[in-house]
């Protein structure tokens, strides 16, 4: 298989002026201080299309908003999550649902349901993963993972938390540079980019069986490509730990199609 050569691989997703959005976020942040001391996730859609966030809690952790909702371009939603919450969040695109919340999505579909509840999103999908702490053990751990492939840019950034709090992100549109062997198309358009594991379905690429340790499972050429484009995201199962962030902030902004940071 050959890696696709594309002069657009330095492509940056076009973003609108963020000033008004930041003011709105600040206003929401100040208002929320009056109502809760818990952990908050502020979800923002900066894509030029609707996104349907999917949410899946790990065993024993229920998903806020029944695991899914519609988020228009420019909108934001504040989610309150309990201490110790652990789970994953991803964005779905190209969805159509009926009045009963049944339908389909081009990417990230969770069993044809608006409210994913206990259903995971179909790969490829860019995933935000987190394990939240408590008042006694306040560190929160979070990352952006491309282990299940990519469908849209996303970031998770703390509001406050002090020095050392990092931003987990894949900020560029990896679909533009996706090797042809990994492409997922809808209507002739690339809407997702598979991971090597998803495309090849073998232990060598999925880090399973005899390859279930970092000594035998090494990054593929595709994992190197993912890492070069999105250095602040996990590119494969045994990627280096620098992609894992930790912070004590009480609030985090999860942005779909975030602006590229310097």
From TrEMBL:
Family indicated by similarity: Belongs to the thaumatin family.
Statement: the UniProt record of this protein carries the keyword Disulfide bond: yes
Organism: Stephania cephalantha
Protein name per UniProt: Thaumatin-like protein
Keyword Iron-sulfur: no
S-S bridge residues: 47-257, 95-105, 110-116, 165-247, 170-230, 178-193, 197-206, 207-217
Keywords: Disulfide bond
One Pfam family linked to the record: Thaumatin
Source taxon at top rank: Eukaryota
High-level lineage: Eukaryota, Viridiplantae, Streptophyta, Embryophyta, Tracheophyta
PANTHER family from the UniProt entry: OS03G0233200 PROTEIN
Transmembrane segments: none
């Amino acid at each position: 298989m050959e890696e696709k050569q594309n002069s657009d691989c330095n492509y940056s997703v076009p973003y609108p002026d963020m000033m008004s959005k930041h003011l709105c976020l600040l206003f929401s942040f100040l208002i929320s201080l009056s109502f809760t001391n818990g952990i908050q996730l502020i979800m923002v859609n900066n894509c030029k299309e609707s996104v349907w966030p999917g949410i899946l809690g790990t065993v024993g952790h229920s998903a806020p908003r029944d695991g899914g909702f519609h988020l228009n371009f420019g909108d934001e939603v504040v989610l309150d999550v309990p201490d110790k919450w652990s789970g994953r969040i991803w964005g779905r695109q190209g969805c159509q649902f009926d009045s009963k919340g049944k339908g389909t999505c081009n990417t990230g579909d969770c069993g044809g349901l608006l409210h994913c509840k206990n259903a995971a999103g179909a790969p490829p999908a860019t995933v935000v993963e987190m394990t939240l702490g408590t008042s006694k053990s306040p560190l929160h751990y979070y990352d952006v993972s491309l282990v299940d492939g990519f469908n849209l840019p996303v970031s998770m950034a703390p509001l406050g938390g002090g020095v050392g709090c990092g931003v987990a992100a894949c900020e560029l549109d990896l679909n533009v540079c996706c090797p042809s062997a990994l492409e997922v198309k809808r209507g002739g358009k690339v809407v997702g980019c598979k991971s090597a594991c998803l495309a090849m379905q073998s232990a060598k690429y999925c880090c399973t069986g005899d390859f279930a340790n970092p000594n035998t499972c090494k990054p593929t050429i595709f994992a190197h490509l993912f890492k070069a484009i999105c250095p602040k995201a996990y590119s494969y199962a045994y990627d280096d730990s620098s992609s894992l962030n930790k912070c004590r902030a009480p609030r985090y902004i999860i942005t779909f199609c975030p602006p590229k940071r310097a």
